[in-house]
Description:
Blueprint: E1 5-10, E2 26-27, E3 30-31, H1 32-43, E4 47-51, E5 63-66, H2 73-84, E6 89-94, H3 102-110, E7 117-122, E8 125-126, E9 130-134, H4 138-146, E10 161-165, H5 166-169, H6 185-194, H7 197-206
Parallel strand pairs: 1-4, 1-6, 4-5, 7-10
Antiparallel strand pairs: 2-3, 6-9, 7-8, 7-9
Helix pairs in contact: 2-4
Amino acid sequence: MVSDVTCVILAGGQSRRMGQDKAFIQVAGVRLFDYVYGKCRKFFSRVVIVTNRPEQFHDYPAHVVTDEITVTASLGGLYTGLLRAETDYVFCLACDMPFLQPPFIRYLLSLRFDYDVVIPRTSEGLEPLHAVYSKKCINPIKRLLDAGQFQITKFLSEVRVRYCETKEIQRYDPSLSSFVNINTKADLRRIQAKLQGDRWEKLLEAS
């Protein structure tokens, strides 16, 4: 179990395109957040949940915190997670990524030394919500927030970045399923088709 890196789960999105809170969408009776949290809790000894609805997460044995700066999208959540983490590095992810691959996460963490950010990059672009960040990112992020700029990757030019390229990723995750998330109901239907009924529940139990 990893103890020197904090897992930061961002669960404060407004889910406008879904029309409901993505964290608590159920697939075969299992909440999406429970699957993500279960994976993270078995891999990391320190878990921080960043949310604008802390009352919804009281039952989870984690450090539940409220966004320091509201209405700032994922960048504000990352900023809050870095501030509240007790470790120099965090692994930050969104709450709607059900296909996490622990061997790949471990590989990302192994690359963090001498860098402030370790971020996957595929043909689809950067994956900032499945990435490693150091506390040295706090001040660059705060400058962006103060300027009213909320693009999560805009501060990368100010820090030391290690890009994890597709060929590296595919050693641990050949289908790049780590980055599958739910933004629309069509996305949800695809995930439901992949994790139906008993299979979803068995994966949750075995994770």
